[in-house]
Input
Amino acid sequence: VGERNHPRGFVTAVRDLSLKIDGGEVLGLVGESGSGKSVTSLAVLRLLPPQARVSGEIIFDGADLLRLPDDAIRQLRGTQIAMIFQEPMTALNPVMRVGDQIAEAVRAHNNVTKATAWERAVEAMDEVAITDANRRARDYPHQLSGGMRQRVMIAMAIVNRPRLLIADEPTTALDVTIQAQILELLANLREKFGLAMLFVSHDLAVVSEIADHVAVMYAGSLVEMGSKQ
Output
């Protein structure tokens, strides 16, 4: 259950929510704006603001993420669990080359040299089908198209080989053609690396393209769950 601060006191943002994702499985979390989807995904990684309260259990690999020390959860983020955010331009540093930003994610969790981190960053960009990755790694975010920036975000998420990927509306800001390419990319990465994925969206049609199971939220509650068929 997630709660957020409010001028009138605490309000319950999400209640009585129970989800399960097996290895290699994609769970689609669908709902209109304000239904609690993003609160749920941020709660998994304990990225909600300090005034938020989360109760219950979030079990990953036998451990309750809500009870892990801060150092342990910071180490887990970006290694075992990674997140793709909705808008790359707000998540990427505008004055830093994209390759350096991915390499920084490598060095944050691995004792490697700058050169090795850079090589792994370029490799990750190649894995998300960015053409001429070695050259494009030297670009700044504003030099890339929206679809390319989203690929960079995905590269940053997979570079440390996480087991769970949380994708928060990763195709919302993209046109239909690029959206289809990103969905295909995520499906290929899931198959290649055996990723479990929580795919968050307001669009049921998009979710049906990639998810094995779909959970529908409304006003902070889970109202329906089943296979996409």
User: Anything to note?
Assistant: The radius of gyration is 17 Å. The mean pLDDT is 90.
